[in-house]
Design brief:
Residues 139-276 form the TNase-like domain. Keywords: Membrane, Transmembrane, Transmembrane helix. The chain crosses the membrane at residues 7-37. Residues 83-104, 111-127, 284-295, 355-367 have a biased composition (Basic and acidic residues). The protein has 367 residues and is α+β, with helices and mostly antiparallel strands. Among the domains are: 21-100; 139-254, OB fold (Dihydrolipoamide Acetyltransferase, E2P) (Beta Barrel). Helix content is 53%, strand content 11%. It has helices at 2-21, 23-45, 51-137, 180-191, 226-232, 234-240, 256-268, 309-326, 334-340; strands spanning 140-150, 153-156, 161-164, 166-168, 195-199, 211-216, 245-247, 345-346, 363-364. Helix 1 crosses helix 2 (23-45) and helix 5 (226-232) crosses helix 6 (234-240). The radius of gyration is 57 Å and the shape is rod-shaped.
């Protein structure tokens, strides 16, 4: 009994499963069985009826139709599964392809970066080699400026003092000259704390032990090229911008002609210290040459004989008086004039010079 009960349960489960998966087939088979049953009953009764045949036919048709439908459904499912599988494989293949392309792109970019870095390093190394070659060729020395003393003098970071050669800026330390403080501030702004390159001409030091040098702000490719001198040499910039006058002391004359040329340009433009007069405000190459002072003892004024001494003295006295009334006092610049006339001079004064009257108010060198 137990065995039959178990078999019954198993069969019931199978039937339920079949019914769930193949409902039309089971219904068709049930109808067919019903038709067979009706045919058996009619046979026993000896009755003739088309009903069993019709029922059996309907059942078989339904059962067979369900099989065909299931096959189609199964086929469709298989096709769908296959398509999904193909799509999945295609997506995976595409993802793998994209991944490989991305990896290749990353590798290419990394390789490109490495090549660029290597190229930069090579260029930098080449540039350094060229720089060292030029430094050696022009006898340059790389230094750091520690402190600026005045417009044309400074100390290096190691304590050595340097005096710029070929130029002279107005004084601004123990004594002051016009435009001296401006020149000192200019030099401080351009050099203090900066790395520059020193170049010797002929002399090594002056009487005070200061190094006599040309200062390059950057290494030139041709140290006699005017454009490079204008743009890279600090000595030249001082003259070009009107902060210094050319001041030549042989044998250090390598750039003297350039400095004079730059000074003429600055003077014509009344730039910087040249605005105070055609001779600037300090000593330089353009200062007038000193001439022998005339005196009453000069040969032209001496009496030709002692016998005419009284008449000569009388004539000399008259000439002296006349000369005194028509004399002109000459001063090189406003700095020198103010030593005698601290507040300047008016236009009718013997020391007045139009070039010293910058504001054209008929008063020269006023404060």
């Amino acid at each position: 009994m137990k065995m039959r009960g178990c078999l019954g349960i198993i069969l019931l489960i199978i039937l339920i499963a079949l019914f769930v998966n193949y409902p039309l087939f089971l219904i068709g088979m049930a109808i067919a069985i019903w038709g067979i049953y009706e045919w058996t009953v009619n046979k026993k009764l000896g009755a003739r009826s088309k009903k069993p045949a019709v029922i059996l036919s309907i059942g078989l048709i339904l059962a067979l139709g369900s099989c065909v439908g299931n096959d189609d459904a199964t086929s469709e499912k298989e096709v769908a599964v296959k398509q999904e599988s193909v799509k999945v494989r295609s997506d995976e293949s595409e993802k793998e392809k994209d991944k490989k392309q991305e990896e290749k792109k990353d590798d290419d970019e990394q390789s490109k970066e490495i090549d660029n870095e290597q190229s930069k390093n090579n260029e930098e190394a080449q540039k350094q080699d060229q720089l060292q070659t030029l430094i050696k060729k022009f006898g340059l020395q790389a230094v750091v400026v520690g402190k600026v003393v005045d417009g044309d003098t400074f100390e290096l970071s190691d304590g050595r003092k340097v005096r710029l050669i070929g130029v002279n800026t107005p004084e601004s330390t123990t004594r002051t000259e016009e435009y001296g403080k401006e020149a000192s501030e200019y030099t401080k702004s351009k050099l203090e704390g900066k790395r520059v390159y020193l170049q010797k001409d002929v002399s090594d030091t002056d009487q005070y032990g200061r190094l006599l040098r040309i200062v390059w702000l950057s290494v030139p490719t041709d140290d006699m090229n005017e454009n490079e001198i204008r743009s890279k040499m600090f000595n030249a910039k001082l003259v070009i911008d009107g902060y210094a006058e050319p001041s030549t002391y042989p044998p250090d004359v390598k750039y003297a002609d350039y400095f004079r040329k730059f000074a003429r340009e600055a003077r014509e433009a009344n730039r910087g210290l040249w605005a105070y007069g055609e001779y600037g405000t300090t000593k330089g190459d353009f200062d007038p040459k000193e001439t022998e002072k005339r005196s009453s003892n000069s040969p032209a004024n001496r009496s030709s004989s002692s016998g005419n001494s009284s008449s000569s003295e009388s004539s000399s006295t008259k000439a002296g008086t006349s000369s005194s009334s028509e004399s002109v006092e000459y001063f090189k610049n406003c700095t020198e004039l103010r030593k005698v006339y601290p507040n300047g001079v008016p236009a009718d004064h013997p020391a007045y010079q139009p070039r010293m009257d910058r504001d054209k108010d008929n008063y020269a060198c006023e404060r």
